[in-house]
Amino acid sequence: MPPAPDPDRVRGAGPVLVEPELKRLDGVVREAAVPPLAAPVTHGSLADIPFDNASAAPDAPVLRRRTAAAGGSGRWSDVPAARFAEEVLAVAKGLIAEGLGPGDRIAVMARTTYEWTLLDFAAWAAGLVTVPVYPTSSPFQARWILQDSGAVALATETTAMAAALGPERDRLPDLHHLWVLDKGHLDRLAELGRAVPDQEVAVRRGVLGPDSLATLVYTSGTTGRPRGCALTHGNFLAEVDNAVELLHPVFRAQHSEEPSVLLFLPMSHVFGRMVAVACLRARVTLGHAPSLRTEDLLADLAGFRPTCLLAIPYMLEKVFHSARAKAESGGRASSFDRAAAVAERYGEATEARQHGSGSGPGRGLRTARALYDPLVYRRIRAAMGGRVRYIICGGSPLGRRLAAFYAGAGIQIFEGYGLTETTGAATVTPPLRPRLGTVGWPLPGTRVRIAADGEILLAGAQVFRGYWDPHAGGLVPGTVDGWLPTGDLGALDDEGHLTITGRKKEILITAGGKNVAPAPLENWLRSHPLISQCMLLGDRRPFVAALLTLDPDGITHWRRMNGKHAVPAELLLDDPELHAVLQRAVDEANRLVSRPESIRRFRVLPGDFTEAAGHLTPSMKLRRAQISQDYAREIEELYAL
């Protein structure tokens, strides 16, 4: 392994580039490993973070929360480290006063709010194990997680969430406590805990170590019931400490500008939770945006003005398409397209320079970019608050073109890949050597291996302890000889960058015996402004086909620009002009693959795939079996034509 970098260099002067050690088989890279940048944690836990911050920098604004104001508006107020530690201590004492013991599971069902993070750290300080539940979960889904985890307490954001669980309460004999955050129940807990000495919390914190269980995070369950991933305090610390050191620009002050992150992805997902912990660990100001409604999120971005955001590719695609639609409505579509092409070329030229294969953007390209910056790029940055320099993106591949566009527009994308089982990211774009269109190198301290069948295997200190199984007496191991089989397919290039090519279980095998990975075509089509979702078909069928759903905003804009009447989207399904546009999109996507893998026919569905209908997981992944069942008639008609 390459020698470990100088710690002073890592923490002081800027990011360090530690190239992966590569192993080849028959000339093909089969394994990549990067040594840890952060020393392994041998004692302590996540519960110590608020108190360590309060001791080291009591006045540092570690969080910023939106407070209610007259007239329904609000303002953002800093929460210093010392005050946050006081609040964590008070709530932790309240949990102890309520009789919760070390190791007890406490579930949280809420959107992305300040109270979520407060309760998370308070539970850890009291020696508890937190269990996130998506606020969009059905009563049955929530009951399953509460029942399987053996949760003794539940905190919901709203009374409505609590009431929805009413019919399931008789199946939850272990659930003894129910609190509602909107009703001020955290304040009530803090009041109740006044009689508990501070030392009791200190004792419970003191017995926690890196191997102690911190949380049970349930997978979103694309093929069956969710499984609880047992993540330790050490898993989180290995993940966030190495991420903070690698992503130096995100977590360190740049250009005299203090870093800040506005979190709007679900705290119920390990990605958002991991970044929240990383911000507290690095003392980067963290804010929470609970609403994803466009007007609410834009207001939060404008008020908070973050330097970094978390996003999934779908959101970045929507930002791009919305900006283009706005330009087209104003008669500036051609100007926007030229600006987008300049940004892509600029991003690619910058990438080439960083890899030593080019001299970077030339004078003409720099001039063109400067011309379009106030006209296009600055407006996109303004929609994100005006100060965003970095976006951490995960969940699915972003694509080379869009990554290059954002890089050229002045926003660096750190694309990553990981699972709940790996506490978030296992690979991430290295700041000094990005490879657009890939999900980066192994996170420091991580090894990536490609098995003989193309499956991605992962190893590292952030890999979970196992799957929670109360019927098997605790945990079921999830690794084999230290390697986690991910179920994903991928490839490593000659520098160790990973590209995701699909899922093993989602591989389609046509009647002609051709193996087809759906992901590349689905992701390409999903990035089209008129297409919301796409699912490929073709397993044991004579050819590949696709189900498409329409993007409401994209269709509304297309209808207006083409003089179509304001009719429901389902009445446009047989419109020949719309069909021609979608056919061109399919033809363009088919250029990515061989003819046997290409889409021969497609069907546009009258409605979108939704989580409520059981077609999507809370993290926006397709539930293929359910979609196939619900649209069996449409699928048979596709192949009967």
TrEMBL record:
UniProt entry keywords in alphabetical sequence: ATP-binding, Nucleotide-binding
Entries under InterPro entries matching the protein: AMP-binding_CS, AMP-dep_synth/lig_dom, ANL_N_sf
Database matches in Gene3D superfamilies: N-terminal domain of ligase-like (3.40.50.12780)
Transmembrane region(s): none
Keyword Nucleotide-binding: yes
Record domain AMP-dependent synthetase/ligase: where: 54-468
Record bears the keyword ATP-binding: yes
The protein, known as: AMP-binding protein
Annotated source species: Streptomyces griseoaurantiacus
